[in-house]
Amino acid sequence: MKTLEDLNKLYQSLKIILTKIDFNSALESVERLKDEIEVSVNSKLEEGGYEPVVIYKHLAREYSSGEKFVLNLIATLLIKKPLVVFLDEAEHSLHPTVQLEFLNFLKLLKITFNLDTQFFISSHSPYIIQSAVNSEIKTISLEESGNKKISVETLNWNGAEPKVSFSKLNYKIFDIPSNEYHSELFERIREISGSKSIDGTNNYLKDHFKLKMVDNTKETLPVYVRNYIHHPDERSRSLDVEKLRNSICLLEKILV
After folding, report:
1. Which tens digits make up the pLDDT trace of 53-89?
2. What is the CATH number of the domain that holds 53?
3. Counted domains in the chain
4. Which of 4, 137, 169, 185 suits a disulfide with 251, CB 3.0-4.6 Å?
5. Cβ-contact 250, 211 below 8 angstroms
C-alpha cells in the first residue's frame, strides 16, 4: 500500500469537492473495521513565522453517501485488488463536479497503485459520459419491434471535438433531441455555407441538398426549425418532437 503522501497527492490532483477527507487515514480505519473515523487535516500557516497545526475531525456517520461510496470503492480496490469491477449507475450521490472527474480518478488509482482492475461502468450521467469522450463508448439498447434483440453501437467521436456538448451527448446516447443541439448543428451549416444571412443558408440547403420547403413556406426544414427556436411567438409555425428530430437527422447527414 502506498504512503499517506502518495494518497494525498493523488487526491489533490483530482481537485474533487470532497475536500475534508484524508483517504489514507480513512482507509486504515476501514481496514480496522472501526465505526468512527477521525480524519486529521494539517494546515500550515505562515503568518508571523508560526506553523501551527489545525486539526479537523470528521466522523464516519457525518459522511455524505457520495463520500461513503468513494471511500468504500478505494478500500475495496486496495484491499481486495479485484480484476473486474462492475459499477452500475456510478453517478449515484456524486456531485456533478465529482462525476466529471470520476473516470480520471479511477485511472489515477490504477496508475498510482499499479492495479490490473478492469472497470465496466453503466451510467446515465452526461457528466461521466463527457469525460469518456476520448475513449470508446458503447450504447446498448433493446429493440422491441418484432423479435426482441439487443443492439450495440460504438460511438467514435470526431477528434476535432475536444469537448462534446451535453446536448449532443443527450441526443447520441439517450435519444433526446433538443433545441440546443439543433442550434449547434445549424451554426456549423451556416459556417460551411459561408452565408451571413438565414436566407442565404436556406438557399444553400435548397440548392446543394435539394431540401424541400415546409408547410407551404419558403423555408427548408432546418431553417423552419431554427426560426421557430429563435422566434417562438410567431404563430405561423408549429414545432413538435418529430420535426425537431427529422431536422437534426438531416443536418447530421449533411455534416458527415
Report:
1. 444 445 555 677 887 888 888 888 888 889 999 999 9
2. 3.40.50
3. 2
4. 185
5. yes
